[in-house]
């Protein structure tokens, strides 16, 4: 009887091929570390004829990932196809129903169906492991579920989408526009099959919802994430924020508040010299705050073949060693249904607008802010071009609701040339 851990891998794209490569190259190392051989038994993808740059002839080929998931000769089903619904979910459910543990990198599926899948797995005494689903190569799931298990987690925040950070930092460094840099990110293999998941903030929102569940013992609630993408950020925003000492990041924050669970993923300003401000390219950073640890900062590659496959291998090795944990750190049946916070916590905001060259224009804007209860911390006006001048404000802490009242009033004046931009400022 073999003691090998037998894998079925569905999905042979960027991540799947990376996993096959590591399993082939590091077979001896993995056996030494886990005490078992780890074997690929069968694989699946859509196109059997495609040259994927790795030898696959030694493995059985299944056209249907569900059939692969049900095979009697595998112990672990490795799902690397992607997509919240369809083949990935059907195959994962089939694997759990036929007694297989699951390893996946699929944050979309977990963000939408994490609770139901966790209940299915735990009822059968099985595991779902998903280190690669959040922040690529950074072992953040392990950090929250295991290393920090003795902490009450107070806040989790981070930059968790490599594509967005790549585009934003390269816009600043090269002065090139969004479209050229979107293409570069695509060439690096960072993008999801549907790129709107990246630039619309949805992919990062999926990751934040998963981390919030682990951190706060709540059921994954992606619908409760306040979401905004980076599509409206211009070179001008990036340059002028830099002028005020900030950088723009697609930043996720999850924390418990007296008003409920706060989960937001949106472009924010962070101090340029802070660790988050200095994060370049496709790199991710997750900041975890807990009562005993105070603050932990994890930084590393958030996407791409090697880093993501590395995280998948960490999960496979844990299963080979017999390490089993509840899917979201505590039994799924004990996870609370979280109430999303209806009103956001106050924060300072950055406001950018263009004011027409009319007497009293600035005074009108300052009065509107004052009347809405928004206090100005700093302000800068640049010279006029074509009759309008860019004006920047940094406010003291205020609520988004108060700011929205002021923004609406501003639009109704005869001094604002362009729709004002308002971005939250986060200090870590
Ligand atoms: P990918 O390059 O697009 O590969 C997807 C693979 O799944 C392809 O081999 C495809 O087959 C196969 N596939 C898709 N639908 C299928 C179906 N119905 N039946 C059988 N096979 C099917 O995707 P990826 O970048 O490797 O991502 C895989 C997963 O990892 C996703 O959940 C993604 O969100 C996650 N992830 C990716 C990264 C990254 O850096 N790329 C990082 C973290 C997490 P064909 O090749 O024949 O078309
Ligand atoms: N599209 C994702 C990103 C891949 O850019 O971060 C890693 O999850």
UniProtKB/TrEMBL annotation:
Pathway: Amino-acid biosynthesis; L-methionine biosynthesis via de novo pathway; L-homoserine from L-aspartate: step 3/3; Amino-acid biosynthesis; L-threonine biosynthesis; L-threonine from L-aspartate: step 3/5
UniProt xrefs under InterPro entries: ACT-like_dom_sf, ACT_dom, Asp/hSer_DH_NAD-bd, HDH, HDH_cat, NAD(P)-bd_dom_sf
Pfam families the record matches: ACT (PF01842), Homoserine_dh (PF00742), NAD_binding_3 (PF03447)
GO molecular function: homoserine dehydrogenase activity
Annotated ranges, domain ACT: 350-424
Name of the protein in its database record: Homoserine dehydrogenase
E.C. code: 1.1.1.3
Family label: Belongs to the homoserine dehydrogenase family.
């Amino acid at each position: 009887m073999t003691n090998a851990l037998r894998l079925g891998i569905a999905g042979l794209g960027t991540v799947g091929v990376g996993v096959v490569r590591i399993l082939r190259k590091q077979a001896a190392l993995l056996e030494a570390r886990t005490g078992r051989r780890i074997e690929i038994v069968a694989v699946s993808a859509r196109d059997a004829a495609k040259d994927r740059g790795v030898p696959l002839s030694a493995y059985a080929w299944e056209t249907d990932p569900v059939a692969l998931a049900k095979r009697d000769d595998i112990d672990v089903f490795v799902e690397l196809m992607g997509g919240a619904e369809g083949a990935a979910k059907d195959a994962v459910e089939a694997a759990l129903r036929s007694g297989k543990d699951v390893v996946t990198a699929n944050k979309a599926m977990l963000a939408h169906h994490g609770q139901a899948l966790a209940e299915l797995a735990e009822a059968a005494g099985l595991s779902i492991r998903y280190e690669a689903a959040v922040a690529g190569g950074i072992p953040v799931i392990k950090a929250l579920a295991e290393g920090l298990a003795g902490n009450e987690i107070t806040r989790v925040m981070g930059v968790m989408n490599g594509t967005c950070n790549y585009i934003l930092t390269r816009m600043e460094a090269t002065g090139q526009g969004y479209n050229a840099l979107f293409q570069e990110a695509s060439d690096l293999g960072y993008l999801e099959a549907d790129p709107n998941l990246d630039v619309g903030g949805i992919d990062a929102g999926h990751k934040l919802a998963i981390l919030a569940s682990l951190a706060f013992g709540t059921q994954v609630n992606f619908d409760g994430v306040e979401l905004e993408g980076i599509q409206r950020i211009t070179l001008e925003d990036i340059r002028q924020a830099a002028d005020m000492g900030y950088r723009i990041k697609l930043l996720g924050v999850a924390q418990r508040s007296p008003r409920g669970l706060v989960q937001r993923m949106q472009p924010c300003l962070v101090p340029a010299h802070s660790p988050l401000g200095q994060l370049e390219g496709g790199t991710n950073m997750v900041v975890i705050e807990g009562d005993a640890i105070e603050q932990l900062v994890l930084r590393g590659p958030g996407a791409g073949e090697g880093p993501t496959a590395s995280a998948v291998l960490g999960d496979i090795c844990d299963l080979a060693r017999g390490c089993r944990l509840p899917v979201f750190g505590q039994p799924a049946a004990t996870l609370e249904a979280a109430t999303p916070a209806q009103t956001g916590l106050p924060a300072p905001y950055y406001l950018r607008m263009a004011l027409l060259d009319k007497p009293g224009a600035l005074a009108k804007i300052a009065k509107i802010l004052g009347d809405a209860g928004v206090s100005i911390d700093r302000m800068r006006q640049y010279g006029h071009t074509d009759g309008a001048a860019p004006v920047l404000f940094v406010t003291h802490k205020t609520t988004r609701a108060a700011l929205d009242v002021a923004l609406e009033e501003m639009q109704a004046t005869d001094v604002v040339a362009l729709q004002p931009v308002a971005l939250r400022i986060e200090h870590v």
